[in-house]
Amino acid sequence: MTSSDTQHPPQDPPVTDPPAPERHRRPRAQAAPRRVLLTALVIGTAAALAAHLLFPLLPHRAPVAAVELEGDDALAADVAAALDTGQIQGLAVARFRNDAPDRVEWVTAGTADGAAPITPDTRFETASVFKTLTAMTLADMVDRGETSLDRTLEEVFPDAEFGDPAFAEATLEDLATHHAGFVTQVETGWLGTLRGLATGDTYRTAHPPLEFAASAAPLAPGRHMYSNAGYALLGEALAAESGTPYPELVRERVLEPLGMDATVISGSGVPEGAAGPHREPGARNEDWRNTDYAAAGVATWSTPEDLVRFMTAVAEGEAPGIGALEPVYKEVEAAAPGTGMEGLGMALGWHLLEVPDVGLVTWHSGGTNGTRTMVATDGERSVVIMANSFGVEAPALGFQLLGEDPQRVQGVPAWIALSQTLLMVLLPALLLLSLTLRRRTLVTQRPLDRLRLVSLTLGAVAWSLFAARLGGWVATPVVVWALGVGLIAASVVVGSWHWSRVPVEAGRWRWLHVPVFAVSVLFSLALGGLMAWGAAVAWG
User: Fold this and answer.
1) Which of 3, 60, 80, 437 shows the greatest Cβ crowding within 10 Å of its Cβ?
2) What is the dihedral sign for C-alpha 165, 169, 175, 181?
3) DSSP 296
């Protein structure tokens, strides 16, 4: 038998996987011709140059010259050692020995508004430093037998409604030492938060104190929880106990006896010649105007000279209501851990803190969205600080100036402000430019369409306005904003050429793409509108 006679069983054909269906991918849009790209380059460059020139003229901004510290050489050297002068819009600092209060060291720097130089009689917002005046008014009334520290809110306001029985049982001492359970900031609601972001005036729409107490829930009553609402309510209580409106009461009991004639409560805007608040040098913010919160330091203005008069009387033990400085809590128990209250003691309104290399300091600081203040004494020396830019770390500066060897106060690192501003300005602009040049989104690789052109353009413009208003321009060169504006302008030119050549919508899932587009547009319009409104209000 030959091999050819051998029978082989039939073989099945090899099994192979069916070919994968070809994934549908929309073709890339036609690239813009060179003449369009050249036009975009020219217009983008022109827009960048214009943006760089116009940036200082934006409604909320003004050019800022380098500041010089003027005054007593020793204090000026200490301030220069402790403070980054690049954070100064306007500044006044006073220091004196308690046994020689008539020999005051002074340092001033910067301007109130970009033009008028700061002087010892320039008015600034006091912010929460005014709480010490409220507390001393309380102490004065207690000394006169007109009220008592253990009077409850229910006793002071028998017809009032409270959102929780714990508020009704809170005493005047609880309010004066921030132990009533009121939480600050929530009294403004979401509208106040937006207003604060846009304009700087967080408290313009805050609920009146008694209305807030009628609806709020307490947080950890009996433990320390710093509260502007609590102090505003304390002012209402003192007015009710005395039968005198709070502004008249604090003037009668504290301001007039000390000759603090320049200290005022004003809900009608920045007093003439005063140092209006600035988020950072050159960036104007709106002042706080809600006089319902005056007892907490809202809508209150004073001068460095007046606060020196106040601290002189405190140092000499002759201020009305001086008993307010007597310790109530050697160390408070904070309502929440990690709040920086460790080691903090409380008198009525005054904070007590053991400061390294200084000793026990009795003090209070204040801050609005554009003002920083500080009054402090260690028993041997006293210091007053008033600044109209938020970057001045007044409490830390005050502690350093009470010591013998001031060290640099550590603020927010410049690289953080720079990084945040770069991100806000350049990332949206680069994403838009990438879309128009590549004709696909950079991250998801989705094709260019009209919806994406609209949403990314509005987003880039909105974030550019946000950066102009709230970016860190002390740390960031203005050329960065100009570059961002130029990139947006160039992208708009290229996108305009593509407009009639791309579909309206080219998403993978239309049912998702269209709602995402709508949300994106609404967010960008809201953000951009909020920033534009805030800039206009701050300028006005």
Assistant:
1) 60
2) negative
3) G
